[in-house]
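Review box. Two proteins, two foldings.
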Amino acid sequence: MSVDFLTSVLENVDNPARINRDNASNIVLAQPELIKYLVDITFEVDNKLSIKAAWVLEWMCTHHGIENILPYLDIFSKHISEVHFDSAIRPCAKICEHLATAYTSKKENNTKKLLTQNHIDLLVETGFDWLITDQKIAVKAYTMNTLYLFGLQKDWIHSELEHIIRTKVIHESKGCEARGKKILGLIEKRSTF
């Protein structure tokens, strides 16, 4: 199977409806060599097809396991800051949240073994960029959670996150305010230990 085949699969994804993302991800999962092409297309950031690739990649990571992205952590973390279509940033932010959740899990897993400090630093840097730029509510919500989780390991993240939430994020919308207050509560609860 080739990148041309994957391109035709993605071109048939008319919209991000669950059925479309599920069908495309099942095709990719049936031929795992296509996952690398899917990641590559996700980061062809000026190509509109990258949006559909991001939808499918996120669906795979959400419904079939974060392990699907692990062999491509170098590419993912290195290029995530380049994604600029709103519809591609949201699924990438969700993948970041899944990575942070797996990394901070009490259970042993491959994410803990394969996600390096360099990967985390790149994801954190991109996350802070997303919080201070004009992004959709979902991106900010996923990102606040991602940064909170990675902040369990690096204290400076929580203080920076708290500052950005209080000075900027909670004033942007009702959704941002609600998630921001939730994250602030979690940070506060940790600091009282």
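Next protein.
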Amino acid sequence: MARTRLTPEREGELYDAVLDLLREVGYDALTMDAVAARTRSSKATLYRQWGSKPELVVKALRHNKPVSLSEIDTGSLKGDFHAVLSRTDDCQMEKDSALMRGLSHAVHENPDLHQALRELLVEPEITGLDQLLRRAVDRGEVRPDNPALKYVPHMLIGAFAARQLVEDCSVDQAFLIDYVDSVILPSLGV
């Protein structure tokens, strides 16, 4: 059966509701029934449009990140990283961190969620980051054989995970910019 096309506004409302529910109750307690009730839509419509809860959740997360890393090109790696980080304010970072904390446990318990996250969110982000880094190599800012290149995604994810654990405070723009300037760029020889 063909999927009926939702308007971008309606799709955005649905995604916002999913993310709100995710923050409120967590992944395991989030049900298609709850999403249907919150959004005044039928469960059948949700399943027809998204197929499964993991797909709906991950597409809502991706919708929340409208900018692709590969689209950012300021002419320098430092400029690119700063441009990426300036696109999100501290309030949104706090919300995103809360979402990721809520999902981190669920990912281990739900292989479908883990696979959807990798395919729809992680791999496109890593591809965009690779393009951003490849441009820096092409410009001569980073040596192509720099061993730290393959660890940039790990360093970025580590910054998010470690701040809460080590300092018991949320990641914010100032922290991430300082982290990029103090850790990532020096490791790349920039």
